[in-house]
Amino acid sequence: MFVRTASERDLEAVKALLAETWHATYDAIYGVERVNEITSQWHTPASLKARLTQPNSEFLVADDGKTIAGVAFAAATDDPKVVKLRQLYVLPAFQHKGIGSMLLEEIEDSFPEAHTLRLEVEGANAPAISFYKAKGFVEAGQTGDCGTAGSGIPALVFEKRLG
User: Are the C-beta atoms of residues 115 and 82 closer than 8 Å to each other?
Assistant: First the structure.
C-alpha cells in the first residue's frame, strides 16, 4: 500500500469508498437514510473534483494498485498556520493495517509551515476518537456544524500541535 496524491481518475473509487465507510461508521448513529442524504450532498463528483485544485490543500489516497483503500483531505484555514483535516477514511476491510496512520503522517508532512492540525469528529465515533488520541490529538472544543456551515451536526473538535 502506498500513499499518493489523488487524481481525477480516482474520484469514482473515492466516492464509493466514502459511501461505504460512512455507512459502516454512521448508519448506527444517524440511520441509513440520513447517511445517504449526507453522502449524496457532501461527496458529489463535483465536490471531490474541486478538491484536486483547491489551493493550500492536500488530497491523498492509499492505493495498492488494485484498490483505493483510504482517503485523506486537508486544507489550510484562514490562518495559514492552522490546517483542517476534513476527511480521513479507510475502507472497513483495510482498517487496523496502518493505512490511516500513513495517510495522517503524509498530511502532517504536507504542511511544513503549519503549527496546528485541527479536525472534527462525531462524539459517538469512539474508534476514530481513540485513533486520534493515540496520534497526539487533544479535545479542543465542540461545533454544532460539523463538516460544513449549517449542517446542524454536532461534533468534537480535536487539535494536534505540529513541528
Answer: yes
